[in-house]
Structure of Fungal-specific transcription factor domain-containing protein:
Amino acid sequence: MSLQSDTKSETGPGRLISKGERSIYLDNYLWKTASNEVQDAESILPESSGGVSYQIPRARIEGELELDEGALLFGPASTPNLSGLHPNPVHIFKLWQTFLENVNPLTKIIHVPTLQQRILNASGNLDSMPSELEALMFAIYCAAIRSLSDEEVLQGFGKSRTTLLAQYQQAAQSALVKAGLLKTSNMVTLQAFVIFILSARGEYNPHTLWSLSGIAVRLAQRIGLHRDGSRLGLSIFETEMRRRLWWQITVLDAAISRMSGSTSSLYPLAYTRIPLNVNDSDLDVKMKEIPPESLGATEMIFCLMRYELGQWLERQSRSKAVGFDGYWETISGSSIPIEEKDRMIKDIEDVIERKFATHCDPSIPLHLMTMIVAWSVPLILRLAAHHPRVYHEKGELPTQTAKDLLFKTCLGVLEYGTILLTTEKMRKYLWHVDSQFPWDPLIYILDELRHRPIGDETAKAWHLIDVTCSRQYHRPGPRARSPLHLALANLALKAWAAHVAECERRHMSTIPQPNIIPTFIKLTQQKNLYSPPASTRVNASSSRDQDQRSTPARAATMDASPFSVVPQLREGVLRSTNPVDDNAHFASSAGLDPAESSPFDWAQWDASFQEYQQQSDSVGYF
């Protein structure tokens, strides 16, 4: 017996999906919306002992190993001699340098000078290293390999990325079990576990990851990371490293919670200060005085910006219990007037700009990453604040002006994301970008494209959708076969069919078919979700040929260098078309205007494409 039921309580609307002894409660808007697009609700349920229902069956990749996700909890069938699973010393330091270059700048939970010396010492005597350090080293190998492309791994290490990643993940699992993960009070073991989770986000399904992140939270509480070390009589160095680890766990747990259809209730437990704005070189184990904070950019700039955003979301929610959409409830709900939400968003935008973006040099990859995220955040927040669901809950409809502004806002999010995806020097951070997929802007754009099937902005939107989705859907692993991916693919095909139909009605040519459309068709047909019209049934090869004939919007985007696009987007999208400087436009269009609006089918679309709750990816995309 299968059951889908919507609930409404003091904490907001939820959805329970159950069959037999299995059930899952969807506790945020992203997953509740997606569940409407997946006709087979059972595919959303967690795995059962009888088999895997979470993803579409696929052929196993050569060299791929089966990961036992339960091994972390109950231990592997046998514990191998881990010393023989380490790479040779040359590869150890190559992986360490890769981690420092690609992963460490975005996580900052290890002290590089201290750990580097320990790795140096351990690499010469792998048989006698402490179990917690061994777990950390294997986790670092995993994260380093995860951050590289297939070609980079094969060229640098002589084996396929799939093979090495599975090999080191299995070794990391064994090492964590050997280190006594579930009963540990060792901070190095917890560091290893957090880095392991970061490396496994593309391999484990979100339900498993949410359980693992919950373990990380409990271990952090056991160690006392949720209490600031300055109140516990700890050293300056230890206090600072504990802060860094705790805050990374909070943003990781929030991001994973969102992707699993749940919410994070972590913040009320914590009284830990945000880390200092200092470099690793400013910290020393024996230091007796607190180092002065830098007024400019440090190695911590990206992490501190994320933590600032998380803290801001927590502050906004203090006046009410955490609701259906978690800490996004204040922004995404309808209890606060839109004008007040606009003021709140403008305040945090000013803080981010003053404390972070203005200190960045776009020629430095970490700074460019920080700038793009800093400029994207106000757009994402406004999507949450002005989403059609907010109007629907009040029995109103957004005006066409409001919908146009929101459409441009979402296009801005995708444009910024495209810079990260297409800029060569940002390749080393794509492992993080992959996990911050802009679900909510994409869903809103695709819904709107059903109602605005032609036009210059439509062509631009399809190009951005193509760039944004291609990497996500063409990578191997469960990330491209989850119910969320299926739901978005189904929406995209409906929007593309609307474009084709409108062009046929007007006797005009369609825009070049996006490369991603055949992938969407194949994916949805595997689950019998969608049977596209004949005009949309194409061979995978044909779209690539069509793609050579670029539209003007596509050519303008692709020909511009990142250094010309960044200021252009900053000025053109954020300052001109985004409600940052157009709060008056949003406010004036907050009422009902039947002449400018046509109602969404909220019953069919489940209060369609409801609110952004993220990142969590973060406080989410952050």
